[in-house]
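Renewal narrative, Specific Aim 1. Our central claim is that a sequence can be written position by position from structural information alone. The example that follows is taken directly from our test logs and has not been curated for this report. It begins with the structure tokens describing the chain, in the order in which they were read.
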């Protein structure tokens, strides 16, 4: 695999990086927004993919992830959505990022996130949105902020390849009303 800033990408991760770069080029050539969603189960290595894409900025859903993303996505400025949306609401400029990564992408269409996402889309930035479950709780998809979705790998594929351990679902025998 490719070696980028300490990560050796697994084959499916390298394929996701290549797909994203190719898709951004294709979308740009078609005059479409360069915004894609990568779906990957928890534990599949989204951070390694983001690191290999070299974003200028990463938007985190909360302060708890800022330190972790700052340490793992080399050279990227990591900001919380809360800080960016406050700046935008005050009429301030946001960081000049040409390539933006958004973690927990299902939030991208939420009222607080959407204006920030639209800010970068309107400036022609390349956006990569990652999530294990890229849909809102009420079932809405992310088509209003993204042009294409790529399912990087399924949980079963990652288990079969030895990257995740098998699991058992434990549930009561009957439904309790």
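The sequence written for that structure reads:
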């Amino acid at each position: 695999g490719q070696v980028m800033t300490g990560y050796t990408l697994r084959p499916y991760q390298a394929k996701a990086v290549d797909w994203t770069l190719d898709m951004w080029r294709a979308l740009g050539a078609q005059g479409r927004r360069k915004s894609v969603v990568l779906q990957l189960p928890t534990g599949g290595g989204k951070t390694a993919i983001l690191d290999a894409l070299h974003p200028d900025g990463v938007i985190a859903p909360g302060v708890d992830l800022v330190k972790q993303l700052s340490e793992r996505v080399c050279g990227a400025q990591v900001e919380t959505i809360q800080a960016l949306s406050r700046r935008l609401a005050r009429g301030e400029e946001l960081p000049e990022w040409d390539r933006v990564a958004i973690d927990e992408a299902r939030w991208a269409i939420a009222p607080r996130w959407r204006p920030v996402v639209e800010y970068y889309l309107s400036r022609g930035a390349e956006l990569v949105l990652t999530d294990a479950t890229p849909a809102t709780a009420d079932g809405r998809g992310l088509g209003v902020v993204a042009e294409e979705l790529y399912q990087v790998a399924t949980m079963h594929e990652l288990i079969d390849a030895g990257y995740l351990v098998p699991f058992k679902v434990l549930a009561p025998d009957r439904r309790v009303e």
